[in-house]
Amino acid sequence: MKLLMIFLGVFCGFSISPFIHAEVYEGRINYLDPEFEKMIPSEICNCVAFRFDDIQNYWLHDVQLEVLETFRENNIPVTIGIIGNDFDGDMANYIKNVTSSENSNFEIANHGWTHENFAVLDKDQQNQLIKNTNKRIFNVTGILPETFIPPMGEINNGTIEVLQENNFTTFSGLMLTSPPPYPLVISGAHHFPETALTAVYKAESQIFQGLPHSETLKDIQQSQKKFGFSVIALHPQDFAVIENGIHVNKINQDQIHELVLLIEEIQKSDLKIVFLNQISENLTKNLEYQETKSSNSNPTNNGGCLIATAAYGSEIAPQVQQLRELRDNQLLQTESGSAFMKSFNEFYYSFSPTVADYEREHPIFKEAVKLAITPMISSLLILDYVDLDSEEKVLSFGISLILLNVGMYLGIPLAAIIGIKKRI
User: Whose CB has fewer CB within 10 Å in the chain, the N or C terminal residue?
Assistant: First the structure.
């Protein structure tokens, strides 16, 4: 078993962190979900970012301006997600004037071209849409966004590559499309998803019902405890009057007042209000986490930036998910498999964060690692067709895989070298 542990650790380094599917209710994260019970953030920022989505010129125009003015008048940082195709007219002029000041409290984010679902688009389509919005924003404001807010909150592997190629440093989607632990660094970009809301979506009526500031504050406190940061997502309809079951372009002054109260409560606390792309700058190691790790809580709870995830660029990459499923559905179902994983974790975490960091810093090394581990990951597909339901099967198939991979990585190159020498 030690040979299997060492082989997998050197050539694979698959993700050990749990793939948490947190329960959501009424559009909010249920922080009472047992999945969150033992979570401790590895890094904390003691900071909050406001994220105001769907900035455009043609929908709830007056409501948008009132919310933006609330932040401007109170000099509160806010990241605004701009829909490129509809960024013109009065709204564009307003944003241009505010961002032209030396101490602007608006961070501009790319929020798609027409609010498309990027998860269903290929890389080229996404790249063109992002470039279109960047160009429109730059032409109006002279600013190139470094933060991306995916419309619908969803992304795919192509999105990650596009963000890297277009020099984005931060993106902010939904927790369920890229689960904890956080901060999650994918191809050089930090992911800080929404963790609190100012309104909840009511499916039966298809409207957004504003929340009292006290409820949003509870979610902020919980997300600080579980993730080490908070991102508050706001939408224009959160602050619009509802007439005949639809949101109309009239300001809901009660909800604006709740927003002001929320800001005041945050300012009274020890939390700092920052832009989305400033969260990473404020992160510090969580001493509580480090002490827990040193006293050795379960190493499988360590998130970390691991080799396969760094090589393939995402925790949701098919290759990484395959390895995760092998761990959860096969190895951990037997006593010997569980014992192997415990030993493997102790060995693997002694070097994997350093290797993963080096991958992210050196693209050529990253591609070399990807090339090296791909044959081994492919060989693990064999285990999808067998049931590792006994100790004997775990041992026999483990040894067989070692021999197979030794043959691929050592036997074939050695045979090639001997063949060349014979011809010389």
Answer: C
